[in-house]
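Customer escalation, tier 2.

The customer says the design service returned an amino acid string that "doesn't look like it belongs to this structure." They asked us to rerun it and document both sides in this ticket. The original structure tokens are below, unchanged.
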């Protein structure tokens, strides 16, 4: 291929840059990977998608001599695009640890969650464009996808670099430009899809609408999208077969086109089948990430595992394989319950749980904890040691209180810990987000459990995704107006084509709720 259609990619191997690769190929370019510092100096255009932790990235860059090559490439004003950490590393230093490349004056600091803004900053937010930057022309008044806990702040010293800012508690630097050098804090490779023009100016962090695909093998061994009623995914027929609602890659592509802000896959039998033996699931991720340019989350079976030959796999290896195959976030269910129980019992963070290890290597923003609670009514809050709430409609025997019992293994086993206690513990252990299901509401179409979502979204300062029970678009506006949920997820209504994603977004827009302006 001619040099004109080649993008040089600096991937230092710290995480998933598959989506950046896919986006570059989608735009018709070939990719040349940087192997040596000379490859940087010889590039005709260089993309640097930073992933993982700041200090770890700098260590790799300086060990390989790529730091100097990068500085000289940028100082010569050669075509450059840094993404996320690829922007932050250009600054002098980071509170996340240590010095950066020092090309732009300023320190990268952590968002402050004490003023009510949830950290990490995850989701679709608007830019204030402060100077003509070329690459932002098509973005205009629309939303782009951010996911980060650290940010660079504007100052007099770096003002000349700034091409846009974004408001999230602080006004931080969303992009920089000087000559041919560009860098963005947001993820262009995850901000895909056409944006609807002329709908008014985007102004703040949008509420996300997420499509969820519960995936498992049917009795013939094919991976299918299934959907349960209160977690029971088998048809009420004589054959009792696994309910089949379609093919995972096709449906994910459809929801992307329909305007879903994210897509989640839950490998719902992962708790008993080893997911790395589940190669079809990895294939599903690979194929999906070629055409779906919004964040992908995958969950199911993330834990330490010894296979039948006695080979041991750490949860980190399992997660890494998911990330390599195209996931942007992984979600942990059962294993997070055990980790939280142990932490609450001992008060000690061992650093060894799957949750802690994966968030240390890939960052908090890449780790979701999926909670599968079941409502337990009580007459008197004093009857249990756990946090109870007054429920908005009483239980079958007139009980006015309830707690929410965590379960493991796809709802099959109840544990002695509540969703409230779990949420607070996993936040401390490094979770970046909570996917809050509710077994009672799952598949019922009667609305989200607003009591539960309120309880959990008020208890933590990480984003909470409300899940289970959506039946009509009004259920989404209800959960967003009555609780502090950052996102709402649904499955059944999308799979059965009762309510398309577009209808949910149009309804939210009409209700004055800020939404990510991606439409099909
Ligand atoms: O424990 O780490 O292996 O993770 C297993 C994962 O699989 C967990 O995230 C768990 O929630 C999920 N899971 C396990 N069994 C089931 C099941 O349904 N039998 N699915 C299951 C959970 C619940 C939702 C669903 C919403 C929305 N699915 O994610 O998509 O309730 O549904 P609706 O809109 O139709 O009401 P591990």
């Amino acid at each position: 291929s001619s040099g004109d259609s080649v993008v040089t990619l600096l991937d230092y191997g710290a995480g998933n840059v598959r989506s950046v690769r896919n986006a570059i190929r989608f735009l018709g370019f070939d990719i040349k990977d940087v192997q040596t510092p000379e490859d940087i100096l010889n590039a005709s255009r260089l993309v640097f998608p930073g992933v993982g932790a700041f200090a770890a990235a700098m260590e790799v860059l300086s060990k390989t001599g790529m730091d100097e090559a990068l500085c000289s490439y940028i100082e010569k004003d050669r075509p450059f695009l840094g993404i996320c950490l690829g922007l932050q590393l250009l600054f002098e230093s980071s509170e996340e640890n240590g010095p950066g490349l020092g090309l732009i004056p300023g320190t990268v600091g952590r968002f402050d969650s004490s003023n009510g803004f949830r950290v990490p900053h995850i989701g679709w937010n608007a830019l204030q464009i402060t100077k003509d930057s070329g690459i932002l022309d098509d973005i205009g008044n629309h939303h782009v996808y951010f996911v980060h806990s650290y940010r660079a702040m504007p100052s007099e010293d770096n003002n000349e670099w700034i091409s846009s800012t974004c408001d999230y508690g602080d006004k931080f630097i969303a992009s920089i430009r000087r000559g041919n050098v560009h860098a963005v804090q947001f993820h262009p490779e995850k901000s895909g899809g056409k944006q609807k023009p002329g709908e008014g100016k985007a102004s703040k962090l949008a509420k996300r609408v997420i499509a969820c695909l519960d995936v498992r093998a049917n009795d013939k061994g094919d991976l299918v999208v299934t959907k349960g009623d209160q977690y029971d995914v088998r048809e009420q027929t004589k054959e009792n077969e696994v309910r089949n609602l379609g093919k995972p890659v096709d449906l994910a592509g459809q929801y992307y086109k329909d305007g879903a802000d994210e897509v989640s896959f839950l490998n719902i039998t992962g708790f008993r089948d080893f997911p790395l033996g589940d190669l079809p699931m990895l294939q599903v991720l690979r194929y999906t990430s070629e055409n779906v340019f919004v964040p992908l989350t995958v969950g199911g079976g993330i834990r330490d595992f010894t296979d039948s030959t006695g080979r041991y796999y750490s949860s980190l290896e399992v997660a890494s394989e998911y990330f390599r195959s195209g996931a942007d976030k992984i979600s942990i269910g059962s294993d997070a319950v055990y980790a939280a129980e142990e932490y609450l019992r001992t008060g000690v963070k061992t650093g060894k749980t799957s949750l802690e290890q994966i968030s240390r290597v890939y960052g908090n923003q890449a780790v979701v904890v999926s909670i599968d609670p079941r409502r337990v009514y009580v007459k008197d809050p004093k009857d249990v040691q756990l946090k109870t709430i007054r429920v908005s409609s009483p239980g079958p025997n007139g009980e006015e209180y309830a707690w929410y019992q965590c379960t493991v293994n796809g709802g099959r086993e109840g544990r002695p810990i509540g969703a409230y206690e779990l949420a607070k513990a996993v936040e401390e252990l490094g979770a970046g987000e909570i996917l809050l299901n509710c077994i009672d509401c799952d598949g019922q179409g009667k609305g989200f459990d607003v009591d539960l979502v309120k309880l959990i979204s008020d208890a933590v300062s990480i984003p909470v995704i409300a899940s289970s029970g959506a039946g009509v678009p009004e259920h989404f506006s209800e959960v967003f107006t009555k609780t502090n949920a950052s996102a709402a997820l649904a499955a059944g209504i999308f799979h059965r084509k009762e309510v398309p994603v577009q209808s949910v977004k149009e309804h939210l827009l009409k209700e004055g709720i800020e939404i990510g302006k991606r439409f099909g």
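Tier 2 assessment: The sequence is consistent with the input. The two ends are 33 Å apart (CA to CA). The CA atoms of residues 480 and 486 lie 8 Å apart. Sent an explanation to the customer and offered a walkthrough call.
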